[in-house]
Every structure is written in C-alpha cells, then in structure tokens.
Amino acid sequence: MSRKLRFGMIGGGRGAFIGAVHRIAAQMDGQAELVAGAFSADPDRSRASGADLFLAPDRVYGSFDEMATAEAARPAADRLDFVVIVTPNHQHFAPAKRFLEAGFAVVCDKPATFSLAEAVELRRIVDTTGQLFALTHNYTGNAMVRQARALIRSGAIGPVRKVLVEYSQGWLSTHLEATDQKQAAWRTDPARAGAAGCVGDIGTHAENLARFLTGLRITELCADLTTFVPGRALDDDANILLRYEGGAKGVLHCSQICVGDENALNIRVYGETGGLEWHQEHPNELIVKHPDRPREIWRRGNAYVGPEAAALTRIPPGHPEGYLEAFANIYREVFRALRADLAGEPRPADVEFPTIEDGVEGMAFIDAVVHSHGAWVPLPRA
Amino acid sequence: MSRKLRFGMIGGGRGAFIGAVHRIAAQMDGQAELVAGAFSADPDRSRASGADLFLAPDRVYGSFDEMATAEAARPAADRLDFVVIVTPNHQHFAPAKRFLEAGFAVVCDKPATFSLAEAVELRRIVDTTGQLFALTHNYTGNAMVRQARALIRSGAIGPVRKVLVEYSQGWLSTHLEATDQKQAAWRTDPARAGAAGCVGDIGTHAENLARFLTGLRITELCADLTTFVPGRALDDDANILLRYEGGAKGVLHCSQICVGDENALNIRVYGETGGLEWHQEHPNELIVKHPDRPREIWRRGNAYVGPEAAALTRIPPGHPEGYLEAFANIYREVFRALRADLAGEPRPADVEFPTIEDGVEGMAFIDAVVHSHGAWVPLPRA
Amino acid sequence: MSRKLRFGMIGGGRGAFIGAVHRIAAQMDGQAELVAGAFSADPDRSRASGADLFLAPDRVYGSFDEMATAEAARPAADRLDFVVIVTPNHQHFAPAKRFLEAGFAVVCDKPATFSLAEAVELRRIVDTTGQLFALTHNYTGNAMVRQARALIRSGAIGPVRKVLVEYSQGWLSTHLEATDQKQAAWRTDPARAGAAGCVGDIGTHAENLARFLTGLRITELCADLTTFVPGRALDDDANILLRYEGGAKGVLHCSQICVGDENALNIRVYGETGGLEWHQEHPNELIVKHPDRPREIWRRGNAYVGPEAAALTRIPPGHPEGYLEAFANIYREVFRALRADLAGEPRPADVEFPTIEDGVEGMAFIDAVVHSHGAWVPLPRA
Amino acid sequence: MSRKLRFGMIGGGRGAFIGAVHRIAAQMDGQAELVAGAFSADPDRSRASGADLFLAPDRVYGSFDEMATAEAARPAADRLDFVVIVTPNHQHFAPAKRFLEAGFAVVCDKPATFSLAEAVELRRIVDTTGQLFALTHNYTGNAMVRQARALIRSGAIGPVRKVLVEYSQGWLSTHLEATDQKQAAWRTDPARAGAAGCVGDIGTHAENLARFLTGLRITELCADLTTFVPGRALDDDANILLRYEGGAKGVLHCSQICVGDENALNIRVYGETGGLEWHQEHPNELIVKHPDRPREIWRRGNAYVGPEAAALTRIPPGHPEGYLEAFANIYREVFRALRADLAGEPRPADVEFPTIEDGVEGMAFIDAVVHSHGAWVPLPRA
C-alpha cells in the first residue's frame, strides 16, 4: 500500500504533553500523517490546536462524537486509517468504543480505561469489532528492552527468580495540583484518573515492563500505598511485594514524591544463571551479568545485538536514541499490523505491540493494588 | 505562514545513512514535508527511493540539475522552500551552488565542501544570492550543549583556559572499505572525502563543538596524523595540540580505529573559576564543576535550565532525548529563520544554526591539520 | 596515653575472611597492635595462624577461655586493651560474655549474637560490666555515609518520607555450601548462622545503615522470605515492606541469589525537600537531589564536606578510599572512646560507633522478619 | 624469616601528606613496622612527629645523616631493614645515596630525583651497592592495572596503536602557594620541585602508567607547557603528543588548573583487536572493548580475574579497594623481594615493583618535555 496512513487525534491540544509525543512518534518514520482531530472539548481551543498543526479547518472538530460521524462519512480515498486517544483516563473508553464501532483502528494512551470493568468491556468491543487496538506502553518499544526480552526467552539467564522494578519521580512532592498545572490536576483527581494516582500513572508502566520482559504474570501482591502530600486524594507512593507464577518473587515500587527523581524507571531481572539490568534514563545500554565472567554492556545498534532490537533501531551505536524513538517503535509495529489489516492480509508473525490484553492486565493490577491495604491479594486473570 | 514547509533532498537514497536522519529531523515537529528528491545518480535507485517515501513520481529526479530546473518551474503554491544535500563531500558544492542560484534555501551536511577553496567560493555564492544556507553540525543542537554555551557566556566558569575535545570511533579499525560497506568506502576515498579522512568526518565536529561552546577560534595547531590500517589512503587517527586566541590551550584527538568506541564525542572546558563536561553518548546531562562546592549534574528539561536549552527541548526531564532530537533542533532553528525570510521579515534575534561561516572555518581547520605534519601551523581566517 | 593499644583476636585464623579485615582495619592508623589470639578451635591451626602473624607463641591459644584466663593474669604493662571477636554468629555470645566479665573491652562482628534473647542478655552484661562493646556495622564508617547523616540531621532534605535500601549479592546463587567453601557453609547453616540466612548476613547491614542515616526506627514490617536454592535451609532472598515511626515508608530487599551482583548495598532517602543516594560500591560519592536545582555529587575529602565526614577521611579527594578505610573508621572511633575509658576520662562528646543497642535492634529486626511470613508484624523495642 | 620488617622514614612529619600514606601502606599487611625516623629538618618537629607515632625517642632523629650513622651502628637484631624517603624532590638523592651506601634498602617517593643527572647517578649507586631501591609509582599497584597489563601482554587487544593518558587536577587553579599551603609551596618551587611542576608531580605518573601497561617506550614527544596562574614559576598544564616505539601514537595531558578535577588519572589503550580503559577514581573496574561483542566490565576480586591481579587483592569483589591498598601493593611486592634479599635467596620470578630504571625513565621524560618548547624531541634511553 503505497501511501501514508492517515490518522486523527482525540485530545492533545494546546498545553497537553502526551499529544505532541504521539504526533512525533506516529509520524517519525514518514509512514503516517495527522489529518484530523478533536483536540479539546473546548471548540475554540480545538480549532486553534488544529491550526497550529496546519490541519484543514474542516477536519478539526469540537468533540470526538462529531469527528467520528463526520470522518466515517468521508470517502475511502481520504478516510482516516486510525485514531489516537490521548485524553485523561476517564475519557478513554467512550471515544475508543465510538471509533472502534465506527470501523476505525484505535491507538490509546495508557492506562487503558478508568476502571477494570471498562477495560473488560473494551476488550469485548475490540474482539467484536475486530479492529486493531493498541495501548502505548511505550517503554516496551525500547530496542534494548526488546533485547532483554529476547535474552530471557532464549534462556540466557535461566528461569527467572527475582524481579526488581521501580518507577520513581519527584514532580508531585508538593501540592502542585493546587496551582494550575494541568498535568498534575487530572492525575491527582479521582474523577479523572481513576482509583489510583501514582500506581495508575507510572506503576502500570512498571508492571507492564516487568511482564513484557519476563513473560510472567503476578499471581498475588501485597501493596502499601501512601499519600504523602497533604490535601491529595490519591496515592503518590506505593511499595508492593510481588509473587509470580512459577515461584519468582519481586518488588515493585513507584513514587511521585521522590524529590529530584525524574523518570527513574529501572528494572533488574535475575534468573538461575544470569541477571539483566535496564535503566530508562540510559536506554541504549543493557547490563548483562554472569556468574563467572565479566558483566557486559550491550549497546544498541551493534551487530551483536539480535534482530528483535535491530528492527527497532534507526541510527548507529553511540548516537543515542531516546524516549521518542521508543515511542515511535510502538507505532512502527502498529503500522506493520495495520497495513496488513488494511490489505486484508495476515499480520506479520513477529509483530509486537501492547494490546487491550495489556490494558486489562494493567487495570487488574491497579484494582488489586488499591484493594490490598497491606495484605496479600490475588491477581486473577480478568 | 500557516502551512508546512516543502523540501527536496539530494542524495540519501536506499542504503544511505544520513539521508534518513535528515528526513526524520526535518519533519519531527510537523513543520516541514519532503515532497521531492534526486536520491541517487542512478535514476532507478532514485525512483525506488522516492516510492519508499511515498513521493509523487513526477517529483523524483535522476539528477540534482534536472530537479533544480523542474522545481524552479513549479508554481509558487507547491514550490520547494528548501533543499537538503546529503551526498558525499565531493558532491556538496555543485548542488549547493545550483540551488542557491536558483533561489532555494539550502541545508547541507558537513563538512561544507570538498576543499577550503570550494568553501570560500560557496560563501561568496551564499552572500551574493542572499539565500539561507545551513550546515548540519548537529551536535550543537543538543539542549545541554546550548546550556553549556550559555553558562560560559554568562561567565560561570570565568575566562577559558583549557579545552579537551575528542571524537573516538572504532568502526574503521579494520580495512572495512575493502568490503562493499558504502559508508566506509567514500569516507576513506580521497576523491570523494577530500584531503582528510577521520579529521574531515568527525574531527570537524569536534572543532565545531569546541568553537561553538567557547566562542574561541584556534590560532595555531600542531597535528600528528596517522593511517593505521594498511591499504588506507587517508588518516584514520589524529592527535592535535591547539592554541586559542586569548591564550587558552587545548587538545583535540579523533580516531576511527579505537576499537569498541562508537561515537565518543566528549568535551571538557575549564575556565578560571569552573569547568564543564559534556558527553555526546549521554547528552541529557551536563557536568558543572566548581572550585569550592559539589559538582553538579544539570539535566535537560528541568526548570533550572536556561531558556537557550529549554527552547530546544521537547519532552520532560528524565525522558531522554537523543541524536535525532538534537538534529531536529538544527532544523527547528533553520525553520524559524526561513519562515521569517519567506515572510520578508527580519529573522528572530536569537536564532542560531551553523552557517557557511562554520563551513569555511571547518575547511580551514582541515586544511591546517593536513598541512601541519607535526609542526605548528597558523589557522588564519579564510 | 602514649602507646599503641594491644588487642587479641577470637577466630579469624587461616582461611577466614573477616579476621584479616579486622586486623588491617584495627591497625591501619598505627594506633593498635595485635599481640594475642585464639584463632581457631583447632590448636594447631590457631598456632599456625599466630605464626603467620608474627605473634609470640605463648600468646596464641587453643580456646577463647584459655586465652581469657591467661591474658587476665598478665601484668598491666602488656595486658590486652581489647578483644576482637570474628567467629561465626553462634560463637559471639560466649566469648563476648567471658571477656567482658574478665574486664576487657570487646569489638564484635555482626550480627551481635545468635538470637535476640542472647543479644538482650549481652546488653545486660555490657551494662553491668561497664566495658566498651562495639559492633562492626562497618558501612556506617564510610565518610560519605556520615555526611549523608549530617545532612539529614541538619534538615537539608526535610522530614524523611521514603527509604529504599537494598543489599544484593549473587555468590550463593548455586548450592555453594555443598562444596567445601567455608564462608558459604556456616552462613547457610541454621546451627551456626541463626534463624536467618541472607537477612542475618546482609539484611542487618541494610537495616542498620537506614537507621543510622535517618535516625528512624522501623515500627512494623511485612517480609516475604524465599529460599531459592534447593537443599538450602535458610532464606537466600528477602523482600520487606517497612513502616517507620513518624510515618515514613520504606522497602528493604536483600538477596544472595542475584547473579553477578557483588556487594550492592545501596540506599536512597527522600525527604519533603530533598533526596540522598549512596552506593557502597562507589562510596566516595554522595548524590544529593533538590526539587529546583541540579543534583549534586558530593565527593569525599573536599573542603565543602562537613566535619563528621572529614574526621573519617585519610587522603585527599579523588584518591578513593574503600571498604577497609571505612572499617578502620569504626576502630578509629572505638579507640577514641577506649583511650578515654582507659584514662578514666569522659568519652569525647562526638564519638560514634555501633554498640550493643545496634546489636539488639538488629536481632529484633531479624526476629520480626522471620516471624512475618508475609504479614505485618510490629518491631517493638527489645 | 618469621618477623616483621623494620623501617625508618625520612620526611613525613606533622603536616605532611604522603608520609602518612607510606606508613599506612607499608604496615597494612602486618609485614613491617615503623621504628625510626628523621621526620623533619626541625628536630623539635621531628621529635613531636615520632611521639605521635609512638616511636622510642632514641630512634627519632634530627637529620637523615644522624639517623644513618646511628641506625647503622645498631645491632642486627633491631637494625632497620629499609628506609622510606618522602621528602620533596630536591631531597631524594642525598638520603637515598647515604642509606644505600650504608647498606639499607630504600623505598623512595616519585619522581626519583631533582634532575635527570641525579637519577642516572642514583642508578649507578643502586647498581654498585646492590641494594634494593623501589620507587612508589603507586598506581601500578592497582589490581586492575595489573589485569590490564596482563591482558595486553596476552595479546587480548593485539598490537597497541593508540594510548590516551591523562592526569587532571584542579587544586592549583589559583595562586595557592601564596598562602601557607605546604603541599602547594614546594611543588611550585623550582628549587625544590625541579624543572617541571605539573609534569613532574603528576605527568610522570601518567607516563609511568602508560609504559607499565603497554610495555612501550616513547621515542619522541612534542609538548606544549603552560603556566596559567600568574606569579607561578613552573608549568601547571601540559599537552603532549607521543610517538611510541613500534609506531603507536599517543596523547598525554596533565593539568593542575582543571577546576573541580581531583585525581582524574585515566588511561585508554587501543590495539588492533581491542581496547582497554581504566579510571583511577573508579579503580576496581576495568573496561574491555571488543570489535564484535559487548564491552565488558572486569571487576576486581572475581574468579575470572587473572593471577597478577588476584595476588594484589585483599577483599572480595564489590567491596572497593582504593588508593591505599594499591599503594600497599607496591610495598607487598617490595617485601617479597626484600625478604628474599635478606635471606640470601633469589627474588621470586614474578616480583614486580617500580625501580630506579623507572626513575630514570621518568626523569628523562621530564627532561624531554621541558626542552620540547612545542617541537618534537627524542626521548633517548638515559
């Protein structure tokens, strides 16, 4: 199919953060082009945002519903191929349902939905409509994360025994939501963020990353949630003990009150015969540890790195790739699947991106964490 | 001017490296769109490359000359705004001259030209035509490089005394050009690369970075060039003593035979009252040293970072930006200038990108280095 | 008192590890001299060890009891000033009691005793005899650990909210005790190590370090202990949630099955207005984080470092001090106290070394951990 | 020989730095004991220093000459085995000559002498007397430096092509010698330090380390010396191009005006098939680079580290050893040789410490550097 894919965006107007990230990521490889959007519930703000982005005014809408109706009516030659949803959590489900049912593929920011029940229902809709649904657990798009997973799968460290995963931030160490900081406001508001604060925002990334790397599900967990900042409604800190299927143990901790930390998403996985370590803030390196020989620093882009990572690499070793490139890798994989879908062909066997299943797992994780109250709770498959 | 800028590309077809980098960088912010190209001297290869990029077949050309003629004849409404030149060094001058004289702005990969004489002549053409000419010394697009320069300019480290700059690679430690490796082939060929190998390819980046940071010119240098790999015609290693205007001293060394090094471009600048250190492979950090208090790690994206760096930052601290984002920052600045030019307005006072002056300086540096033969040679303004 | 202090050693014969460490540490500053020892329960081995150390044969003994009797009978002019106990855990209490009651000061390796009950009883003996008793929680002897504590005490990071402390090793990832490895054998044997394996050996260091830095006691904890290596009797891995007095939360995890890790004792402490981070494997640096300015790297030996750290520093900045120097600092402090005791003078107000109180706390920690079985248990003052 | 070695010290009284380092290093392993000294030319200061060190008053002297006479007259049973010289450079030769000729082994701080001529003469005296003479180029005592040398000797990186060695300090970035800072005063005084400042003090360490690792001699060099601080007589900064026997090239730069640097002695060696990197401030690690597989971090104390490094290791991996331990390793080797000498036996075949040959080489290096004046000068064997 010799053309760029066309997409529209829900949310992500002026002042948003993640919308711009999605636009850069989706368009990085010249495979897709933003052509429509409902960027804000405020029509003026939506229009202004569309103008910033050089969109045709008639494809900038005041609501996702209006957009779905209008875009579905367009001729095939310029109809949208997919929609990107970057609104706060409580506004994921409705547009996702609307567009999926209108026949559009959907890429949605995480966590999948506002609640576990919504996620389960969304899964049903995805299954029923048969549309592609991708969830941007972007860190799994890092080349060296893929390499780590490939090593674990290959048996390089033996059966997994221990997982240490953490996501530490400091930006909410004060009552920032009392100012007009938009990012802080919705993330700390139960009506918009859902049942969890820190755990929903970044703990789910940690859970997803650990599961992606190891292929293991948590069977039960014991969580100690805290709200340190006076006046805040949701957790801003969480320490969680993990038990995995097969007997592995783990710790997941995440926080938004760790002063001076930025996006310290770090994971260490230890197996019977080796260990791996990856740090999001230095994503081009993967530390590999052995019982009887020097630890190794695997660096992205080298010939010795395997095909899974090489496929998600744009530039040579030593020229750092970062957050946006990893994010774009999620889109790169989505596009491989979507082009196959659009062509009526089977998806490539090795295509890999987070789906609604990851969304359901993430919401089940949040659900268990907020119900733990310091006791062990099971994490059944939802 | 409420539209995307339109650009074409000379070189950068299938198998090339830097062409794809320029395409990503130029289009990262949704400010510009590739619409034409002469991607290869082989018309079939050029066409295939254009198809990969979803270009209209009638805007894919077999030569830059053909492209210049055809594009100059197009109506203003879809005429190119600028051209990007990403051919090997010996093919910079001719297309640059052709497009500048045809009324197009030009963005050109470094080094500017094949020889110092060509660079001086190109400067004359730029001056005469009044067109924008930008040279992609991309490392100066790093936010923390800008921060370092701002600190030096502000007097934070006092008058500069010592500069240590290095660019170390290992990929040419064997006779790689004897295989069909395209990147190695032209870089080691005097007919295509020019008078210098390693010095032209990466030494010029080091020279440019040091000058950008400190604002100081080299007045004389003493260079010891070596070709370590048997059968190679150009230098693959260089150690150079530097003397700067104002009395500062320095060392610049670069190499392509340092096994295991990737793109180790590192710079340390010491002044009378402080020191700075930046490492390209960890570009989001800037190390600042003081005589009497703890060294600091300035990290991109934080509120304490100054406006020069903030202007070239897309995402929050702790989410790493890398090589492509820095490269895109050069384009971001170019577009600010170019949009002003196109609107007939003065350029913003703080706009900053490498120009033909940097190109002339770089070629003068190469010229001095290859004529040094281990003795001190002056580096006059060309 | 213008002479070297004289000391004897219990345990630490040929093949031991920690005995040699104590000898180097105690004698590093030329303040003390080893003159006697009961290095092994095997008299031949004890004698051979004494000869290795150039001791007079008549001061090398076959048992601690024999040594206590003989040394107590010596004239004041060459009588021992203190005794160092470096036997396995189950052999701490008896010699400590014997020597304390015979009028000798005692320095003992950690954990203090085999059981909490023994520790409590030993505290009674220390109190009754009035002798000095020091416990070598050696990591608290690191200069930058002292600096971290001083910063916390000064309010530099505000009230503590979160503590993350970990001690990760990999040397017991296989059934090493099945070989004749002496260090592995006793540490994994409940009859010699006590109720805990990994937690007793290294978890107690983590607990002690966190308490030393923050000045906070754990009020309750929830521990998930695991024995990963088949055939092993004691825990080789532990993940523990912590709640501190005053509302701080924490995580302590330790392991001896983390393949490739060596002595990864790391601590991060976050307060309301700052954060601190120290890594035992890079002990000369202390990372200090702020909400609104660059993070700082405080480096040992600089003039800006405070008096607490300066007092425990032997060499200038940039010349690394390590494990042995930190260990020697515990002795340096002990000697300040002991020389005062011997002179019948009050101890210096700022003298600081781990005492039997730390020993009781450590044993109470072990006791709580092994009784938790994944549930919250209180940690009362013993 | 079942006794501790006895030694005396020349220099190193109160207020000195390196004297205390030698005392700790020489006595670290309980193999030697300080019993005499002429610690200062001021007899009162010498006596006070001796008392600090618990020496018998009758073995504390007012001059090295007095000491040599008195100690030579003592009975064999308590006669000194060796003497340590830690005076400023201009006072190395006379005491070394005096004690060597009186039949004592000598350990001397670096650089060997005040001038090349003195070094050559001292070599003659060492040869004539047959006494052991060791020069404390202490960095070669680092275990991972030994490992690096062993790897190079084994051919692990192939024939050496490039050496990058640097020693960067910042403590003399101001006119510190104008205060009463004793260390600064003599090091910047031509009458006491010799012909070079920075180059003599630390450049010689860099030269020695590079030669030790690679086994290669410099054949010619080109040096650009600078005195940045007004009022200073000697160089405080040097940038030097190196050419080695066999065709390798190199850069050595050293400085004492690099604000914020402490003891940044770093070396990188690249061969045809690999590269090595060692940083003195993180001495327990050795970075090994390969053309086609991940870079490795070799860490001191592991079983995979070879016998040369293992022999100079006291504690397990992950417990850092530092400057003092490396310094003590020089003594450890000296003692192996000295005990053999005293027993009239041949020295162990693998004994390794810096000798007067290293001293002559170092002085020849200084001599060449100060005579270069920016031009290439040969470095003949002296």
How would you describe this structure to a colleague?
4 copies of one chain form a homotetramer. Chain A is of the alpha/beta class and 382 residues long. Chain A has 2 domains: 5-139 and 330-354, Rossmann fold, CATH 3.40.50.720; 142-315 and 359-378, Dihydrodipicolinate Reductase, domain 2 (2-Layer Sandwich). Helix content of chain A is 35%, strand content 22%. The first copy, chain A, has 12 helices and 14 strands. The first copy, chain A, has a 9-stranded mixed β-sheet. Chain A has a 5-stranded parallel β-sheet with strand order 2-1-3-4-5, with helices on both faces. In chain A, β12 (285-289) and β13 (295-299) form a beta hairpin. In chain A, α4 (93-101) packs parallel to α5, α5 runs antiparallel to α12 (356-372) and α9 crosses α12. Chain A is globular. The model of chain A has no long low-confidence stretch (mean pLDDT 97). The A-B interface holds A 2-4, 17, 20-21, 23-24, 27-30, 34, 51, 53-54, 169, 171, 261-264, 280-284, 299, 301-302, 314-325 and B 2-4, 17, 20-21, 23-24, 27-30, 34, 51, 53-54, 169, 261-264, 280-284, 299, 301-302, 314-325.
